[in-house]
Amino acid sequence: METKIYTITDLEKDHDKIVEAAEIIKNGGLVAFPTDTVYAVGAAMDNEAAIDKLFEVKQRPKDNPVSVLVARDLDIHLVIDITAPNNQFMSRFVEEFWPGPLTIVMPRILGRVPENITGGRLSVGVRQPDDPIARALIDEVGVPLAAPSANISGHPSPTTGQHVIDDLNGKVDMILVGPDCKTGIESTIIDLSYELPVIIRPGSITKDQLQEVIPRRIQEVPQEHSL
Fold first, then answer.
1. Buried b (16+ CB within 10 A) or exposed e, 180-207
2. Taking all residues of the chain, what is their mean pLDDT, rounded to a whole number?
3. Which of 13, 32, 54, 88 has its CB 3.0 to 4.6 Å from that of 41, i.e. a possible disulfide?
């Protein structure tokens, strides 16, 4: 596969590149792009074949779920069951930390979020990245993106365009190169699908910061759970 590699320096001037990348994703392709945490590689959330391809390219076990990226807070209703318990806590976290490096796990909308995104689980992790290129791309696609880190599973998470090129050139349809990722580590993941919120992956947003937002004890259970 020949991978197109575009550098984005100005969203207005480079809008045509964003449009081309979005068209690739709409047609079942894969595009790598920067976010505020690490570079991601995305497929349209509603295209199960593209999501299967995403797992194959990353050499990722199919039972290891991936997170979904949204462009706007309101897009969360396309992914998460907002009638589920702890929805009020989700709203507080969204208000305080989005856009930003926090992935929120909640019950997914059955029939809308494909099972190959979640590894068959009833919950899904969702995040709004604080990166203008990422949000512009997601917005142009028009649906949330299934978007894990843009690397081969087991390799270090990429924080520069060159990292992505080294891992995925020839394996994905396009790589959008932007500035180096400002956070440089993967997002904090908090799971609200249980009675008590559980941090299942630590990141730049700390347990103390999360605890300040809701009057509920937050459990911290580090484990292998790469979204």
1. ebebeebbbbbbbbeeebbbbbebbbee
2. 94
3. 32
Distance of alpha carbon 85 from alpha carbon 31, whole angstroms? 34
Parallel, antiparallel, or unpaired for β 31-33 and 188-191?
A: unpaired
- Write out the two tokens for 32: 């790598």
Tell me the HSE value of 146 on the side-chain side, using a 13 A CA sphere.
30
Tokens 């047609």 -> residue: 27
Using CA atoms, how far residue 68 sits from 10, 11, 194, 216, in Å, is 25, 23, 19, 25
Can you tell me the distance from the alpha carbon of 74 to that of 99, in angstroms, rounded to the nearest whole number?
12
Sign of CA dihedral 33, 162, 65, 58: positive
Q: How is residue 192 annotated by DSSP?
A: -
**DSSP per-residue codes, 2-42:** PPEEEE-S-TTTTHHHHHHHHHHHHTT--EEE--SSS-EEE
Cis peptide, bond prior to residue 132, ω within 30 of zero: no
Residues 187-207 have a mean pLDDT of 94
| Cβ-contact 173, 182 below 8 angstroms | no
Name the DSSP class of 99. Answer: S
Residue 137 sits at the vertex; the CA angle it makes with 83 and 160, to the nearest 5 degrees, is 110
pLDDT at 46 over 80: yes
**pLDDT exceeding 70 applies to what percent of the chain?**
97
Model pTM above 0.90:
yes
Residue 224 has pLDDT above 70, yes or no: no
